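Exercise 7. Given the encoded structure of a 245-residue chain, write a plausible sequence.
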């Protein structure tokens, strides 16, 4: 049985349930409570922490509503997979996952030269139908599928192989080739997974997916990459900081 290490300050103006919830949340995010871990029931937890049952129930409900715990009939309360949170900045998913300790891995599904679709050609500043390099990959975090990624690059920009793309992030390879990314235009949205997308991402058909399209430019203003990515909303979120001007 899990023994939670939680302390509360009864003199604090912060409600007891929130103090408990914050400490359990931190244990989940730090990995001390691993995904799939089963928590004792509310009566046992309340007894362990010398709290009332309503206080414990409120703390658990808060964490369920936040998506960190799930109640399953016949099983009890369990820790769910934590989301990968990504700051909105000019960085690659591979780099962000590496920094977060998420052990990224990649499967390259396709790498070929194709005629640029209208939207891609417009984003890269090329005539419609111009040859571009198309890369299709599945990105994993700790072995779980996280994103379907399609990227387009101008031909001749850099030499790529499936082995390169499975060992390194695209932006890492671009930097190694002397391409200095400086700015990007990015759009974030949402959609429901098709049957194929759901199958590849380990989700149910119709599950919510986050979408992101991005056009990246180098330090001389040249469009060097157009990306169209799909992320599992159950495992992934974007974070941004807003500053008043």
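Solution.
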């Amino acid at each position: 049985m899990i023994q939670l290490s939680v302390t509360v300050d009864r003199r604090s103006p912060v409600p007891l349930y929130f103090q408990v919830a914050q400490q359990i949340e931190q244990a989940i995010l730090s990995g001390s409570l691993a995904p799939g871990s089963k928590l004792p029931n509310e009566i046992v937890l309340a007894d362990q922490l010398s709290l009332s049952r309503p206080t414990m129930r409120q703390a658990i409900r808060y964490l369920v509503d936040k998506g960190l715990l799930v109640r399953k009939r016949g099983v009890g309360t369990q820790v769910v997979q934590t989301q990968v949170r990504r700051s909105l900045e000019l960085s690659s998913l591979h780099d962000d996952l590496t920094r977060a300790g998420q052990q990224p891995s990649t499967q390259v599904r396709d790498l070929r030269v194709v005629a640029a679709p209208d939207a891609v050609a417009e984003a890269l500043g090329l005539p419609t139908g111009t040859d571009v390099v198309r890369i299709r990959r599945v990105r994993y975090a700790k072995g779980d599928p996280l994103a379907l990624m399609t990227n387009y690059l101008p031909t001749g920009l850099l030499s790529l192989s499936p082995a390169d793309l499975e060992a390194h992030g695209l932006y890492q390879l671009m930097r190694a080739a002397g391409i200095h990314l400086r700015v990007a235009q990015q759009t974030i949205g949402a959609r429901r997974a098709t049957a194929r997308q759901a199958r590849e991402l380990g989700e149910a058909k119709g599950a919510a997916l986050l979408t992101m399209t991005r056009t990246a430019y180098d330090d001389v203003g040249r469009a060097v990459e157009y990306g169209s990515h799909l992320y599992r909303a159950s495992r992934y979120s974007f974070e941004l900081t807003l500053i008043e001007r």
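Remark. The mean pLDDT is 85. Students should compare their own answers with the one above.
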